[in-house]
Structures are given as C-alpha cells and as structure tokens.
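Hi, can you check this record?
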Amino acid sequence: MASTMTTDDLYATVQELTTIDQAAAVARLSELVSDNRAELGEVRNRFAARLHGHSDDYQATAALTLLNRSLATVARHEPLDWKTRWAKGRKP
C-alpha cells in the first residue's frame, strides 16, 4: 500500500511524533510510509539541513534521532547480483 502523505505532511507528522514515546513513534512512522526508505530519507535530509543552520534546534535533533531509528528498522533492498553490487562499490 503506497503512502498518500506528501513530504510536507510527513515532515509535520514527525515534528508531532517527537513528543511521544520513541518506540511508538517509530512504529507509527513505519506504518505511515509502508517501509519506504526514500520518503523517510527525504524528510531526514530536511531535518538535517534545518539542524545544520541552527545547531541549538532541539526539536530538529529529536526528529532526526527518530528518523534515524525508523530508518534502521526498514529493510534495505540490495541487488543480489554481485556485479551490480561491485559496480556501486558495495562488496558482498
């Protein structure tokens, strides 16, 4: 099932989720994006850029931590062909 949320919606949702328990927030994020690493990565990059401009932004820090935890739970889909892996610099 594909996510119907835009990146802006997900960005706002992550800000809200920083106020609840992290385990519950990670589960909710996983449910919202259907384990889509690309969506989580886009939002993570936005929070990282925000934090880069304001190092004392604790909400952005909490959101980035939450997104990193969520990304750690999402499976990576690596190509199985060794030639493809080596071409991209990832050895088996």
Q: What stands out?
A: The first helix runs from residue 7 to 17. The mean pLDDT is 84. Helices lie at 7-17, 22-33, 37-53, 58-73, 82-87. Residues 48 and 64 are 7 Å apart (CA to CA).
